[in-house]
Amino acid sequence: MDKIERLLVFGDIHGKFDRFMEAYQKAGFNSDKDLLVFLGDYLDRGEQPVPVMEWVMENFGKRHMIFLRGNHEQMFYKAVKEKDESTNLLSFLFGSPKALWLNNGGRITYSEIEKTGRKDVLLDNWLKLIEQLPLYTEVEANGKSYWFMHADCNPEVPLAEQEEKTLLWGRSLAMHPELHQGEQVIALGHTPVQALGYEAKPQWLQDGKLVLMDTGSFMENGRVSCADLLSGEVYQSSI
């Protein structure tokens, strides 16, 4: 890939469009000089999912912008694709895909989509987008290998051989950074750093080889965060 000046990565956005735009504008992404990777979880929990959807769909496929899939995209996809339209008590008790999504922040997303009067079009377009979102990407920059995925990985296994469930749902590295003894730099979202006892900013662990980017965007004291992995500079929304 062309030589890049900044390798930017965004953590989870979770429907917080205003916070996202503040961080994005601070970062000042330049497609001629920068590469920007999004770690997934664009919707759910936050009150502005539709503007986030529209922004992502408008920018997907643009030069030097990579959008990955998160577990919330996975939940959305399975919930909307679910053949059984039943909403009876049993399906909720036993965790249907719809129940899983709605009970994990999807309820506000669905409500906001309905309010637009364009529900069917938005759902269909977002489903088509999710189908194109990769689970991971790898970037070579300044002689180093950088791995990106939403949640977790096994650092000793090639990316193409990682388990989907680990990439989307795991928390092993976030909770046990010492498990990463490799040379590659790994950037993760999914696990809010506040839940691990850190303040709301990206965390460089394991001598900078593990970067935690989820700064609890939807929390009261949370932020949407972007970081340049080459310089360590951070761009964040206000709390």
What does it look like?
The chain is of the alpha/beta class and 239 residues long. The protein has a domain at 6-68 and 137-236: Purple Acid Phosphatase, chain A, domain 2. It is built from eight helices and ten strands. It has helices at residues 17-27, 49-59, 71-81, 89-93, 97-115, 119-132, 164-169, 172-175, and strands at 6-10, 34-38, 65-67, 136-141, 144-149, 185-188, 203-205, 210-212, 225-228, 234-236. The strands form two sheets. Strands 3-2-1-9-10 form a five-stranded mixed β-sheet, with helices on one face. Strands 4-5-6-8-7 form a five-stranded mixed β-sheet, with no helix packed on it. A hairpin with a 2-residue loop joins strand 4 (136-141) and strand 5 (144-149). The radius of gyration is 17 Å and the shape is globular. The termini are far apart.
Fold topology:
Layout: E1 6-10, H1 17-27, E2 34-38, H2 49-59, E3 65-67, H3 71-81, H4 89-93, H5 97-115, H6 119-132, E4 136-141, E5 144-149, H7 164-169, H8 172-175, E6 185-188, E7 203-205, E8 210-212, E9 225-228, E10 234-236
Parallel strand pairs: 1-2, 2-3, 5-6, 6-8
Antiparallel strand pairs: 1-9, 4-5, 7-8, 9-10
Helix pairs in contact: 3-5, 3-6
Organism: Selenomonas ruminantium subsp. lactilytica (strain NBRC 103574 / TAM6421)
EC number: 3.1.3.16
Protein name: Putative serine/threonine protein phosphatase
For the biggest sheet, the summary is: 5 strands, mixed
> What's the N-to-C terminus distance?
36 Å
Q: Kindly state the number of beta strands.
A: 10
Quaternary arrangement of the chains shown? Answer: single chain
Helix content: 25-40%
Give the class from helix and strand content and strand pairing: alpha/beta
Give the ordered list of helices and strands. Answer: EHEHEHHHHEEHHEEEEE
Q: Which fold name is given in CATH as the topology of the domain at 6-68 and 137-236?
A: Purple Acid Phosphatase, chain A, domain 2
**Nearest-angstrom radius of gyration?**
17 Å
Please tell me the overall pLDDT. 94
Q: What is the fourth-level CATH superfamily of the domain at 6-68 and 137-236?
A: Metallo-dependent phosphatases
